[in-house]
Amino acid sequence: MDLKRRSFLRNRDRISELSDALLLQILSFVPTKDAVATSVLSKRWRYLCKMMPRLRFWYERTDDLERFSDNVCRFLLSHQAPVLQSLHLEVNSERGSTMDIGVLLGVAFGLHVRELELQVYSWEPYRFPTSLYNCRTLETLKLGSRVLLDVPFPVCLKALRTLSLFDVSYKDDGSVVNLLSGCSVLENLEVMMFSHPHLGTFTIHVPSLQNLTLISDSEDFSVFVINAPHLKHLNLKGLIDEDSCLIENTPEVVEAHITDVSSVVYENIHGSLTSVKRLSLKIASPLKLTKFNRIFNQLVCLEIHTYEPEWWNLLMLMLHSSPNLQVLKLISEWFRILDRLTYNRWSQPKYVAECLVNRLETLVWENYEGDIEDDREVAQYMLSNASRLETLAWKRQPSPEQTFFIRKRDSRG
């Protein structure tokens, strides 16, 4: 190959030879501001910038808000894609300087945006415009900190399937009811609450809901009321108060993760989880054993981890309540010497759980500490009675250098 040919290949503009669809996909991975900068390259790049299906803009306090708002608005008005797939707008502003957000959102809704994520960081909450609660194309809505939901009337979000509310403020209980009642096909709901002084009850009455995540880390009192007859996946975290959660109707839940909740909360809700096939439990306080009287006939996979030394009380209850359990994973999370000196000794049950004798096939124990007598006794009890056990995974300490020891039953028994 001669030198002229080699030089041509080295200097060849291979990017421009790519298809429009592939270039748009590449531009979607870079900040919108940088993607817009490519419009100076040629007419083709100016056209591509106007066809980008995913846009992300953010404003910092050091910038000129008026200029930022004007630039974003002009860019949206010149947008030519048949569908605006997503818009992520993040504003970090001073007091009273979020007045133009509603204009930008209105333009985006006029472009039939399907996914909207709004994050506002300001001294005063930003009131989400009530005029935008009737978007027929919006499929995903993610609202972040300092957004205020004041919904005085039922809304109409007929296409909304995913709703994420991260530390959102609410004017009152009715705003929650009015918002969710207008989401007729909502399937995924994620609620994270850190402070909600104006909210007493968060009512979730959504027949179409399939996945629900509730995370609470607030000293303000509020109650979650769940009525979701087709719910399949439930994730609860951080619920401590006795009356913080009321499950009214969830007969189809197949998977549940209950993390950092008090024992009282779990005792109140465990009766609504008897349909689960996979269950993960992390109880934040010792189980009081006052209302535990349900059978988990469908449960086949159980994970238990807790900071309390009395974890085996909950374990034994779950074993006796789960006759069809096949997979058991234990995660010990307490290592302080003082804890080891104050716990109540474990007493071996009078009767062996049915699942140990007839069903359990896999046992995993993370952070196992063989120097604790009760740990050794519980381990010996389960191993001596788990007659159908095929796989055993053991990890003695939370050390990255150590790996699981795996044992599989020989095919001949």
Question: How would you characterize the overall build of this protein?
Answer:
- This protein is an alpha/beta fold and 413 residues long.
- It is 25% helix and 26% strand.
- The chain has helices at residues 3-10, 20-27, 32-37, 43-49, 65-77, 101-110, 173-181, 263-269, 311-321, 337-342, 354-358, 373-385; strands spanning 54-59, 86-92, 115-121, 126-127, 140-143, 147-149, 162-166, 169-170, 188-193, 201-205, 211-216, 223-227, 233-237, 245-249, 255-261, 278-283, 301-306, 327-332, 362-366, 391-394, 405-408.
- The strands form three sheets. Strands 1-2-3-5-7-9-11-13-15-16-17-18-19-20-21 form a 15-stranded mixed sheet, with helices on one face. Strands 4-6-8 form a three-stranded parallel sheet.
- Helix 9 (311-321) links the parallel strand 17 (301-306) and strand 18 (327-332).
- Helix 5 runs parallel beside helix 6 (101-110).
- It starts with a helix and ends in a 5-residue tail after the last strand.
- The relative contact order is 0.05.
